[in-house]
Amino acid sequence: ENYFRNSIHEMMQLFIFFSLSCMCRSLQMSDPRTGISYLPKTTVDRINVEGNKIEKTKLEKDPSKAWTDLYEYAAAIRSETLTWEELEAGDANIRLKWCGLLSRFKKVPGTFMMRLRKPNGILRSDALRLYADALEDAAITVGQETAVADITTRQNLQLRGLTLDQAADLIAKLPDVNVTCHQSAMDNVRNIVGSPLAGIDQDELLDTRPYCNALNDLITIDPDTNKRGNPKWGNLPRKFNIAVSSSPADYAHAKINDLAFEAATHNDGNLGFNVVVGGYFSARRSTHAIDLGLWIPASVSNVLDVSTAILEIFRDEGFRGDRQKARFMWLVEACGGADAFKLKLLEKLKNEFSQFPIDQVDTHQNVANNAVSIDRKPMIGVFPQQSQSLSRVGMHVPVGRLSLEELRALADAAEQHSGSELRLTVEQNVIFPNVKNPHALIEQLGISASRLSATPGPVSGNTVSCTGSQFCPLAIIETKAFATRISQRLDDALGMPLRLHVTGCPNSCGQVQMADIGLMGAPARRIDPETGKAKAVPGCNVFLGGTIGHNSKLSLEPVLKGLPIDDEDELVGALIDLIEKEKLQATAV
User: Fold this and answer.
1) Which among 25, 240, 68, 80 has a CA at the least distance from the CA of 171?
2) Residue 488, Cβ neighbours under 10 Å: how many?
3) Which residue, among 248, 468, 241, 253, has the nearest Cα to 372 in the 3D structure?
4) Is 530 exposed, middle or buried (0-12, 13-18, 19+ CB in 10 A)?
5) Overall pTM > 0.85
6) What DSSP letter does each residue of 108-133 carry, written as one string?
7) Cα separation of 193 and 244, whole Å?
8) Model confidence over 63-114: pLDDT tens digits?
9) Catalytic annotation, residues
10) Taking the CA of residue 425 as centre, how many other CA atoms within 13 Å lie in the half-sphere pointing to its CB?
11) Which pLDDT score is estimated for 120?
12) Taking the CB of residue 580, how many other CB atoms lie within 10 A of it?
């Protein structure tokens, strides 16, 4: 009887995927638009002449085809007419990223990581339950240590250990919980970051949620079909990050984004945004965003107009050769810098904002006049909201890693205490808004998700980590467990709140340049006591003194290179010596 039921279930799944595949293929055949079709001929000609391997792969077969091919591949895998090893490399490693699926074949054969889209970091409990169910299915094959979720530094979630057919099944269900994973990886506009305190911060200048939601829809919804997957933005030269910041305290870390809108009140009393451009991290170069010298009045339509114009310039004129020189800042500099690019932008906008004062607001003067607050509020713990009868509760998630049981525990707590809503922070933690009884919530999670805490250590509670070598093929070192151990050792040794960031390689997904203490995976050597010869060991480069908030700055050069990390007693001692030598002050709150 059980065999019969399972057979019927499998047949139904095959039928559903076959139907989805046929429907999507029919839509694709009737719609000739692709990412390539939006490129000017001059851009296509440049790609043919000077384009890198990835650009030419995108030209050979447009990545937007993955939105329909996905279901065909999943159906074929279910029917055992295709295996994951037989997927074309261009599909598995490039095009499926337009569906939010990143192959992890080298680390966990046959599986993908799914990167979702969570504009402004807003999460709902029904979505958490859906993710937990998907990870539970994945865990049958890969185990619960692999089938996990990670909170990212862009207020987002990544699900690990999914096979392609499991991923396709989940993607088909995402619209039911008002979520998408379309265009969330590789050469796409990534998750839109906003303030995790939007709507509940007494000192915010504006609520970032409407702007983040509108930007997410601009990127991912095709206006002609009203479906997710927008070919207009389907062929950018590189990834593109956007943030909307609610105040000078800058909980969105605006200045490390390609494009950011920083809330600022103009001297004439009108509320609007300063526009900053060009921030990013990479192996070749990391840079702080620069002020564009442009202020726009606060409206969703203005933000969308400016974003559209900038993205069109980037799409059509951005560099398609060396990928290390293809991020947006390189194009801004090639145009002649901020002033020249502003003129180019305003010309494209047909001087739409000419009736408004377009000189950038001097936020330093606003602060000097006590017009705005620059003090950053702590994210972890219990704090009153604008309504004194409600509180927000920030819970520390160690290095952003969540099990499927913890996802369900968070969903239970949100349904009982915060109207089914949670918020993710760029520090890889969660916030429950609008809580009436915070202590009951904390007590509940203390039982159902005991790793999570409202009172973490002063360093461990401010620790951020990239994925590391457990899952990422680029990482030089393992980061998650390592960062947890080191931060706990520093809790005891220092006793002061410092921000520790750990990243596995020079791409700096862990954003070490903005940390008080940043550890970047790097080659190291130490003398073998038996042979007297130097041998290779895991190591790191150490960065000190990055800052966030109103006067943020990046620490671009390591103060120490090639520090071995295989002896953690030695490592912690060396870090304490550096902190004391550099007189590093606590900056975390």
Assistant:
1) 68
2) 16
3) 248
4) exposed
5) yes
6) STT-EEEE-B-GGGEEEHHHHHHHHH
7) 6
8) 999 999 999 999 999 999 999 999 999 999 999 999 999 999 999 999 999 9
9) 115, 238-239, 504, 509-510
10) 26
11) 98
12) 10
